[in-house]
Design a protein that fits this description.
By secondary structure, this protein is mainly beta. About 0% of the residues lie in helices and about 35% in strands. Strands 17, 18, 19, 20, 21 and 29 form a six-stranded mixed beta sheet that branches. The protein has a five-stranded antiparallel beta sheet with strand order 3-11-10-9-8, with no helix packed on it.
Amino acid sequence: MANAAGRTPVFGEDNVLLTPAVGKDGVKRKKPKTNIVKSNSSFISRVMPHETMTKHIHEYNPEGLFAFANINRAFQWLDLSSNYESKAQHIIKILFAKANMLCHDINLSTKGSNHLDIIMGASTADIMWFEAFSQKYARINKNAVINPSPIYQIRWLPGSENLFLAAHMDGTLIVYDKERDDAAFVPEETNPLVSLSKGSSPDHRPLQVKKSLNSRNQKSNPVASWKISNHRINDFAFSPDCRHLAVVTEDGYLQIIDYLNEQCVSTCDSEQLNSTDPYRLTDIYPSYYGGFICVCWSPDGKYILTGGQDDLVSIWSLSERRLVARCPGHHSWVSCVAFDRWRCDERNYRFGSVGEDRRLLLWDFNVGMLHRPKALSVRQRASISSHAPPPLGRNRAESQPTMRFRSNSNLTAAESVDGEGLLEHPVESRTRTAELPPVLSKIIDDDPLSWLGFEEDYVITACAHGHIRLWKRPQETISSGLIV
């Protein structure tokens, strides 16, 4: 997918209608205009800047560590590089009147010493574009004019200064442009539905392109719109080479999308697609049971991690089109998975997971260390679901009951392909799948855990009640080696 110079193309860069106009002074970027501190909008209830906010901004260290957290109706900006007492004090705290901010993301392409673009997705379907240093904002999909469904995950498109992708709870992925105005959206339906394979889930259909990035109507949002499921999209992640998008849904399926070409390719190479039907879904990968909650890529893009309601972390191979291993160890739903890029090399991988069982688990992985479990050791497992408040304002009650239609597990991949070419992979038996035990399992919080991140000197976790904890890595020594 890379061009002649070896650079991965940016989404939509070949569409001249999406190319910003270049003037005498170069590309003139639109800026948010409304000051959030002085705003009288009914969308915002209250803004509480810290008395030292101006000092924090003027003395900002580009090598420092900022944290942004959405907790129920509040959105907070914290400086984790400050001294111990200041870490718990917000730089700014925004309270929203009726909306819970469910997700947010920072644009690394525009990040600078005096500029920070943040987007937030709300339970009301509103999107806020917030420039942190100027404290100005703009609203997108205001009053749900484009899509009325809440936004469960949101991320900037890799390499783009103005485009971002939002996952709505109705199973729709929408590309928005922070610099375009909104308009009532009428789907263009660029591809018809094809019939499903016998025995496959009625809730999973080919990628429906409601509006293509190549549409000539690009005067207003949305830039593109794709319907991929009738169930909630719980998480998505871009591959390190920026070519693919991994998406997991509430009904327990993993899909791989070639989003640059708006193709659903699962884990097969894009050249293997039927060129006469570029929007056909060729593979569906199921969880062991229950919904998938989280997904991430390995730093080299070779492996994908998923976690969910089956209490398992699963390792998938993109090139081999298969489940590599399951990782038991959690006693409840897995809420976040992440690779530790500081502890990964060409052969070995370190990754971690957190869950509603309040546990942090660390894993070391290479293909040579995998083993298959004994058939006699396989037992039925019941998932424990905590009764604590849902993490970061997300309501578990919104989950829909699902019914699985699965392929015969005795069929091979070739035998389970129907005339339409749609392949639904069976659930792999626990006796036939390699298992990977954790190298560390520890309860680290009093509340269910909701997020995990790795930095060079710290491991960072967050819980459902909004507590952010920094765990300092042990020092590297010749005798003790690396533990975390």
